[in-house]
Automatic annotation (TrEMBL):
Main location: Golgi
Organism for this UniProt entry: Daphnia sinensis
Intracellular or extracellular location(s): Golgi apparatus
Protein name, as recorded: Trafficking protein particle complex subunit 9
Superkingdom of this protein's organism: Eukaryota
Similarity-based family: Belongs to the NIBP family.
Lineage: Eukaryota, Metazoa, Ecdysozoa, Arthropoda, Crustacea
Presence of keyword tRNA-binding: no
Chain segments carrying region Disordered: 150-207
Listed Basic and acidic residues bias regions: 194-207
Residues covered by the Trs120/TRAPPC9 first Ig-like domain: 668-780
GO annotations of cellular component type: trans-Golgi network
Domain Trs120/TRAPPC9 TPR region: 476-618
Start and end residues of each Trs120/TRAPPC9 fourth Ig-like domain: 1176-1314
Comp. bias intervals (Polar residues): 171-185
Amino acid sequence: MRSAVSAILSAPAPESNMSHPDYRQTAHDHAALLIMVRHLGSKLNTRNFSRLYERISKQNSFRIKDSSGSVRTISARFIKSYPIENNEWGDFQTHRRVLGLICVGECTNTQEVSELSKIHESLRSKFSGTLYDSCCLFLGLQHDGTPYVTSAVEHSPKEKQQPVLSKDQENSSISSKTHSTQAESYISPCSDAEEPRSSGISDHDSFDETLTTTNLSNITGKVVSHPSRTLYYPSLDKCVTLETDLQDFVSSLFWVLESKRLVSIGNIDKEKQPFLCAPFERKDLIGMDLESRTHRKRCIGRWRKQVGDLSLQSGLIAEALEHYQAAADVLRPANDWLWLAGAFEGLCAASVTLLYPHLRRPAAIQRNGSLTGEGFNGRIRSNSSGAGVRSLPPDIDTHQHFLKNRLKFKHALGPDEVIEKYHEAVVHYSKYRNAGVIETEASIKAVHVLIEQRKYLSAAEFLQNVVFINLHLSDEEKIQRFTALSELYNQLGFKRKSSFFRRVSAMRCVAPMTTLQPNWTLCYQLLFESISGFKLSLDPGVLSHEHANGWPALQVQILQELTGTARRLGNVPLAIRHASLLVHLLLIQQQQAGAAAILSSQEQAEMAKQLEQLSQRSETPLHPGPLALENGTIIPPVSLTLLPKIVSFKLQPPGAVLAAQRLVPEDEINSGPFLFTPIQFGSFRKQPTRKTQVEMDFQWVEGDRCEVIMQVINPSAYELRVSNMQLLTEDVEFEPETTSVILPPTLDPKTTAPTPVTLSGIPRKPGLLKIVGYSMTVLGLKNHCKLKSAMPFMGSSFFSIHVVPALPRLSVQIASPNHNLITTSESQSVSAASSLQLYAGQSTECSLSLVNTSDASVESFDLELVHANRLSSNQVFSVSIDNLKAQLPWQPGTAVSVTVYVQGASDFLMPAMNDCLTNVHSADDSTSLPSLSGPPSIFSRLSSHTGVTGSPRNKAKRAESLVSVRSGASSVRSGGSSNLRATECHSNSHIAPRTVAALLKLQYSGGPGYAAGFCRSTSVALTVEILPSVIITKWDVLPAETPSHCYLVLDILNATQYEMELQYSSCKHIAIEAQDTCRIPVPVERCPLVKLAHVYTENDLNPEQQLEKIAKICCEHISSLVELKWSISGVSQTSCTSTADGTEYNSPRPIKGKASLSSLRIAPSMLDLLHIPPIQLEIELNQETWSAERAEFVCSVGDVLDVTVNLFNALSKFLGPLNLQIAVYQDLQNGTFHRRLDTRLLTIGSDRALVGKMDPNSSYKHNCGIIFFTPGNYKLDVVCSLQISTQHREAKFNMSYDPIHEQHIWKFVPSVEIIVSEP
């Protein structure tokens, strides 16, 4: 390709007398009449002349009736200028002759008309050798030539304005002149654009007479003396008859052309025809044998070829084909290669007119106007649509169209034959050094035909031939040639080759070794148009980030040249825009996989520095939007989205204490059942294939500071300063906050960690906020970076988030008695937290302070205690907010407080172990308090017979080991009984404290947000560590001295590290050492029968349920009567106190607490001693009623002791069966009982009785006698039990006492002591 450029720029062949090629010519131009339209004077501005010329050039096809009445289609080609040198080649190809001249000017008086007419005459004289007719068209005068006054009455547009010829011009005639010499310069070498041929046709005829061969001489004389005509129009908008006048003007040209054609046809049959020659052939006439046979053939062949040209221009294609074929047949034997090539070209032109009647004309190419103009005058237009567009309709085959024409035109060529003839013609043209222009134009015409046939590779071969044709061209014409080649390659689809020639043309405009002044404007324009061929776009959004598209080195080079050219033009904003794209392109190429670095790190740093210097040179800051140039070109904005590179972009939800939540009305809770349907409404709608937004699942609040966290990386090898970073939003008023960051250079991309950058702002209005990107200033440029470009992997163009109306804000603080205040940040889930340490049974208070720190009032407030452990925390924490709600609304700045009560709740029982003995009641699972319960500490004689395991023998032994505990002023130490110590489940080991946590959930609202149904919620974390204080390791129930009372015997463990004082009744205290255990008997009034009557009377309760209810009632009865108050005197709790001078000191305060027995597990064996029995027992000894107040009963040996037992059912329900037993035994006072007294006493009657049923409020009496044989101390027990089953009732009279078969056991309390003495 570079060798082709060298061929163009090398020294040309000498003696080339034709001007530059016409790169716009097509095969259809062979049949067109060439008419030049010139601009006269300076009064008519260029814009109006262009409008008028455009209107004229649209009328390029005319229908004219010939002398035989047939209608011919005559084509006209209008141009603005034409070189004289090309006009001299009219004998070789008649379509190169200027046949008509139309001069356009504007004047207001006859003097100006005369001046413009002189200029018109001078133009006529230059082209007088070929002109058939000329016309002057003047604007600004009435149709009769009088001055045009704007206030005059306007003619109707429908009224036909007939132009009137001026008297001066009517008498003038066309003076015959010879061809101008080659020394004359052409008017202007610039050729302008022509519009595609129009289909508008007029049937008007200006000649009605019949033309015959007898009056050819009259016609010829008429042509020579034909006067020039002048047309007047008031203004450009009032040229109503312009098209009709053009029809008349072209008709006059046609008749002259027709007359010449007829004359030429008449000369064919003559023996000697004039010798036609090309301009460069005239010098060869000297010494030529004019009488030779070969010369005569040349004359005939050339004359037939010219007749073919005239016939083609006259609209007679068939005759033209016949003359061209005849000329070729004559010229080929004569070896007249130049004219043979011309005949072939004419034959191809006529055939192309038949095959492709609507072949498009290529786009115009500007020459001098662009080279010398200021600004972007006459921008080169690309006609890329011409490539691949066929002139025939798509449903018509070219081959079938050719066969149809071949029947009518037998000498017409086919599509392939046309290309062959063109190729042959080009070969013959190449034999002549002075025919380079003709050869170039023929090749270009073949290229257009091949484009129509879509044979682009063959067309490229013709273009390659054009490249190597060496012509004598000026520097301007060389620029034009490069540009024309670029346009043709663009039509072929050779984009890169097209851009190559356009770039060469651009560099030629500013080459230092040319005769032209550097034209940086045209250079930039050509460079700008070449970027698409290198697969480079000025829109950074089109550039691919994944893989290279195009040629990176060429793209970098063209951008550098564009930047430098813009700087030479003095357009700093344009240079900044291209330099920004260059920096952005280098960053894209850097991150592409497998792409080699085009510039080194140092060169890239220099480019960035130059960009920063350019931005500093700019007088006004460059707006990041599109840049509009003077010629209307829009340069897209360039955002440096990779400087820095965004790794992540995350919208931060507000802190849990500031997040907006939806208020749920009570009437909307459980509003209805859930209904499922498989029908998907709207499923038939078209779903978008690509997400356009990412909607957040949280909301921002109006007036609150909102944040977005970006992770950025500096991909460059130089330090990057980024300033004025802020968010870009839409649809909602948003007040962004700016931030700046300095990013260090990246040495190793694999080890470089991203830098977090926080962008914040405050929304000022509610609604749907769209975050579309961010703006920043980097390298001195302000960039608006859209997320769609900065983060293409995100898959959406923006983030959307709802902004709810403004809500109030509360500052929350909580203070504990020991002044422990912990306030956390608002971004966490809680706004404040407090941690306490209490002993079990200790209580304290915390103060919760609330301050309204916002501008909105708090209109709604609610507080909920959320328990982490629903049983334990509910017993530990309590709060009431009735006083707070009464103070609503809270105005801005209002401070309120509420008290939170904290209780060190515990069950005060020893934790159970796997090796404990029976009656171990395990604690509840994690939903209850941590269990401190253990087995009953003291073995009861009447143990549980429903929930214990073991044999009756073991239970009997336990009953025999019962130690009677008498009521006294002091308690019994745990060391007093060796049996108790031996049967303990737990040693006095360390017991770990437990932790109870809860949340105070505050929900409040107010202001516009409350009206919209939103609120805020915050939490206060409360944590209490409960240390063990008093622990009940063992317990039992023993009978008291009176039937209405009993003793609750407790083994108390001091689990603290300090000495403890324990108060277990109103007048009883005891001091317990650290980690020591003490046994205390607590007198308790037995539970009255009134509380238990309903349990016994319920019929739907089974025995187990009945026992559970009785145990629950008895436990509540004990906990209401017994309260253990403790105080630790060995340690003091400090409280913080502030003085007036600001100092703080600690004041000692003793620790006190209470231990509750609400968690005490009551065994079934203890129940009958804890409550008044429903069967009331009464004992009569020797007809004397025995009472508990009596100490003892005395009798003698041998006397009969009459024992009468009275049973009374105190319930309103029958009971039975009942088993009554009277037992006498001896207490040895050492923990053992002697019950085998068969040798010491005799029972008269039965000591047992079975009562089948006792009706409500009924009584039963049983009597027996006892005779003692030996003196001593005896005890008598009366026991009544309720049996579980009545089966084998008769057998039970002979059963020994076995409590396993009994449900309830009621004993007369206390036992009757009998002293038997000697008589």
